[in-house]
Amino acid sequence: MGVIEPAEAPQLSRGRDGRRRRFEQLYEAHASAVFSYARRRASWADADEVVSETFLIAWRRLDQVPSQERAWLIGVARKVLANRNRSEARQQRVRHRLVVARPADDRTEDVDARVHSALAQLSDTDRDALTMLAWDGLSPAEIGAALGCSRAAAYVRIHRARRRFAALLAASTSHEGDQE
Predict the structure, then answer these.
(1) Which band of pLDDT confidence, cut at 50, 70 and 90, is reported for residue 135?
(2) What would the DSSP string read from start to end of 23-36?
(3) Cα(78)–Cα(103) distance, integer angstroms
(4) Looking at the domain assignment, is residue 4 inside a domain?
(5) Are 112 and 167 in the same domain?
(6) Eight-state DSSP code of residue 8
(7) Domain-terminating residue out of 33, 68, 100
(8) CB under 8 Å, gap of 24 or more: what pairs does 146-155 form?
(9) Distance CA 2, CA 41 (A)
(10) How far is residue 159's CA from residue 126's CA, in Å, rounded to a whole number?
(11) Pair 93, 110 in one domain
(12) Is 0.85 surpassed by the pTM of this model?
């Protein structure tokens, strides 16, 4: 696209105005139907957002809107609602996992003080490897990626960290026995 000559400018302006008018007509004719469709399937606020997203898509694809405008717009709204529902379901699953598998820092009353003490004595890398495995549910390959090493190196780090952790726990248990 080159430089716009002054003689072409009114045509572009008319083209933009025509596009804007087309969109306004589309909105005026079908916004209430799209809202009604969304409202029957979602809350008032969510229905407003569905209408907004639907007409944003319509604006972007205005040249592709078929002659059956209302049916097309309701189809778009249906997909917007489906995306929102999938997103909400994913968020619910994450929230559920966070509640079920809270890190020990969030429930210190339930965790043995010896475990905290042993974890505190580990190096940052050992502690990260163990907590990523136990609390975050990462695989050794994912731990390797997070720590910046290979999967094989992550396995070795996890093995060594477990050994050090077990030794620290055993030492703290033997100290408790000495004090009694």
Answers:
(1) confident
(2) HHHHHHHHHHHHHH
(3) 38
(4) no
(5) yes
(6) T
(7) 100
(8) 154/129
(9) 48
(10) 9
(11) no
(12) no
